[in-house]
Amino acid sequence: MHSSIALLRAEHRSIATLLRGACALMTRARARGETPDFDVLRAVLFYLAEFPERHHHRRESLGLFPRVRARAPLVRHVLDHLEEDHVRGDACLRELAHALTAFQLLGEPRRAAFETLLARYVDFQRSHMALEEDEIFPLALDVLCERDWQELAAEFAAPPDPSTGGVPDADYRGLFDRLRPLLPASA
Questions:
Q1: CATH code of the domain made up of 3-182
Q2: Crossing angle for the helix pair 76-106 and 111-131, to the nearest 10 degrees
Q3: What's this model's pTM, rounded to 2 decimal places?
């Protein structure tokens, strides 16, 4: 597997891990009759807005997808759908952040709305990542040439997402300290 695909898959695993962690945090809090740790939930939402939305999706939308589109035009509709997902995901994330703020400030009457939006967002992301991993990544491995992979490797050489093993910039250390309980021990 090429390093570019390996990096995208690692980023998917990080996104999925943090989403599972947020859901588990909500489940535990509900079972105990407590409010969840809002700082951790807000850190998850900030991470999702900061890294996947700004970095991961950019790698796909500006790097991988155009190359696949050029070599396999028959999957244009799938790539168009994935691009629409990238836009829709950002809007869903803003709505989720608003629902979290409402829950935190207005209390229990807003819990169900946040939980519903979180579950929808998790399902949306799972479906989106599965489509990429099941259809686009294998197709890319089949149709892209060595020059494409070299260019992608150079484009993807920017510092990796700290949740995939990279070292966070000083600005992000506090964020990853908050997220650490939701990440695997190796992150």
A1: 1.20.120.520
A2: 160
A3: 0.87
Encode pLDDT of 1-17 as tens digits: 689 999 999 889 988 98
Residues 27, 161: Cα–Cα separation, whole Å? 27
Residue carrying the six token digits 């028959």: 74
| Residues in CB range of 114: below 8 A, 6 or more apart | 26, 96, 99, 100, 102, 103
Position 62: which residue type? L
Considering only CA atoms, which of 44, 28, 58, 74 is closest in space to residue 175?
44
Span 21-35, pLDDT tens digits: 999 999 999 999 999
Domain ranges of the chain: 3-182
Structure tokens at 73: 């035009």
Measured in whole angstroms, the distance separating CA 27 from the mean position of its chain's CA atoms is: 21
C-alpha–C-alpha distance, residues 97 and 7, integer Å: 27
Output the six-digit token pair for 136.
Answer: 């686009």
Report whether 137 contacts 8 (CB < 8 A).
Answer: yes
Distance between CA 174 and CA 91 in Å, rounded?
25
